[in-house]
Structures are given as structure tokens and as C-alpha cells.
Amino acid sequence: MKLLVRNLDRSTTEKELGELFQKFGAVQYCTITMDPTTGLSKGFGFVEMPRAGDAKAAVKNLNDSTVGGNRIRVKKAAEEKA
Question: Exposed, middle or buried, 36 (CB in 10 Å: 0-12/13-18/19+)?
Fold first, then answer.
């Protein structure tokens, strides 16, 4: 299940994001979206967790929690349209 993580502190790394979600199960990958012009974080990213139950537990426990001084929002990512 692909999750969208919003309102990340701009200094949060992909490694830190992955470690945060690994507390709830396996993480297939995580990525933080970067601004191509500045090279800085846009403040959101995606985490892919192969087991839906683990992903749901992560959403329940991490949504509206404070990470790096910011209250993050976590939800299931919208399906990409072909």
C-alpha cells in the first residue's frame, strides 16, 4: 500500500522517514519529493509498505503525530491514473 506523508520538516531524510515507518512493518521503499530547482524538500513524500495491515497501523499511529517539530499527515495515496 502506498502512503502519502505530508507536512514533513524540510530537513527530514528518506532514511529517517523509512525508519519511522519500519516500526510498523516492512517498508518496500520511501521517497521524499524534492524541488528540482532548489534541490530542497517540498515537505512531502511517499512510503510503500507491502502488507496492507502494516500500512493501516502506520497510518493510525503516525497521522497527526509530531516529527521533526511538524505535525505530519499520513494517508493512503491516491491511485495513479494511466
Answer: exposed
Class of domain 2-65: alpha beta
Calpha distance 63→20 (Å, rounded): 12
Q: Would you state the pLDDT for residue 80?
A: 67
Sequence spans of domains, the chain: 2-65
3-state secondary structure 25-47: CCCCEEEEEECCCCCCEEEEEEE
The answer to whether 74 and 54 are in contact (CB under 8 A) is: no
For the full predicted model, state whether its pTM sits above 0.90: yes
The Cβ-side half-sphere exposure at 3, using a 13 Å CA radius, reads: 30
